[in-house]
Design brief:
aminopeptidase activity, hydrolase, aminopeptidase, L-amino peptidase D-ALA esterase/amidase, 7-stranded mixed beta sheet, alpha+beta, 4-stranded mixed beta sheet, Peptidase_S58_DmpA, globular, 348 residues
């Protein structure tokens, strides 16, 4: 699996974590379920923020909608309450309801009081449209596929490229997909980690800018493959940011906003038809569902030090997108549509 640093492409000056992945954040796990069958190139990717029951032990979280052309679920409540209470599922646009059902069924099985003695649950599912390479009308993803992605979640290195939700994605005219990156930060003499996972399905062909300033040209192997090159930007990108830095939801939203700077460095301008969303959470503190205290102690980052995670978010986002483009192989999908690999263009 090729990554940006294999090509000498480094984003920023902060050091990466040991795996250069969102799973460098302790407790965070990622799993994939990939479907490749006939004209179908799709899947689910699951991100599990900690090993416990997220409904019982919620995490501070926030959402930044960079451009809101999307069909995700759960984001309104995350924005209002500043809390995450389920794992996160990523899939294609028409699988959001399927992911919703899977997360609800898991939460109900683990918490018999949901909908009885306590409230309901807020599942978070986000999406990109993989319809260029996959038959999205097939509605191929099932609840069992979502459960399989959740069950496959591990804390080690994350498979990248055309896997899971990234199986049918495109970015900047190349084969897109899913990938990750991380950065290490030192605060008060202690090391912390900030990691991102991206589902890259955005950017117009010809707009991509590499960290060294090059603008790789998309090979036009067949005219019909690139009939949409000059079309309006109608892709999407989902960014999930995790960190063990103690942060409140307002600070997480500010940091999530800086993921957009990483996209801009790549040449993206967040077109009218692009769904560009960042969701951020911190694992540093857990919020008990049945908390009884009136007042709660909180340790949070000094706002005068927030530039450091700002930079980490931008740089890790930029590198994660490049990792997605470089890990994904040349792919032919629905109706013979094709996307070339950036790694092939760069000689990898």
């Amino acid at each position: 699996m090729k990554r940006a640093r294999d090509f000498g492409l480094v984003c920023g000056s902060l050091p990466p974590g040991p795996l250069n992945a969102i799973t460098d954040v302790p407790g965070v796990r990622v799993g994939h379920r990939t479907l490749v069958d006939g004209d179908v190139r799709t899947g689910f990717t699951a991100l599990v923020p900690h090993e416990g029951d997220l409904f019982r032990e919620k995490l501070p979280a926030a959402v930044e909608v960079i451009n809101g052309f999307g069909k995700s679920c759960g984001l309104i409540q995350v924005e209002e309450l500043g809390q995450l209470e389920t794992p996160i599922l990523l899939g294609n646009t028409l699988s959001v309801g399927t992911g919703f059902e899977a997360l609800v069924r898991r939460a109900l099985a683990a918490n018999p009081d949901i909908g009885r003695e306590t409230g309901t649950v807020n599942p978070v599912v986000m999406e990109c449209n993989d319809g260029w390479l996959s038959d999205i009308r097939a509605l191929a993803l099932t609840v069992d596929d979502a459960h399989a992605a959740l069950d496959a979640a591990v804390s080690g290195m994350v498979p990248e490229g055309a896997v899971g939700a990234g199986a049918g994605m495109s970015a900047f005219g190349f084969k897109g997909g899913i990938a990750t990156a991380s950065r290490l930060l030192t605060l008060d003499g202690r090391d912390y980690t900030l990691g991102v996972l991206v589902l890259a399905n955005f950017g117009r062909a010809g707009d991509l800018v590499l960290p060294d300033g090059r603008r790789p040209e998309v090979p036009k192997l067949r005219k019909s493959d690139f009939a949409s090159v000059d079309a309006p930007e109608r892709g999407s990108v989902i960014i999930v940011l995790a960190t063990d830095i103690p942060l409140e939801s307002r600070q997480l939203k500010r940091i999530a906003r800086r993921c957009g700077a990483g996209l801009a460095k790549l040449g993206a301008f967040w077109g009218n038809g692009s769904g560009d969303i960042a969701l951020a959470f911190s694992t540093a503190a857990r919020i008990a569902h049945h908390e009884t205290a009136d007042l709660l102690p909180r340790m949070v980052l000094n706002e005068n030090r927030i530039d450091l995670p700002f930079r980490a978010a931008a740089d890790a986002t930029q590198e994660a997108v490049l990792n997605a483009l470089l890990a994904a192989p040349r792919t032919r999908g629905r109706d013979g549509h094709m996307r070339p690999s950036l790694a092939d263009v760069l000689g990898g």
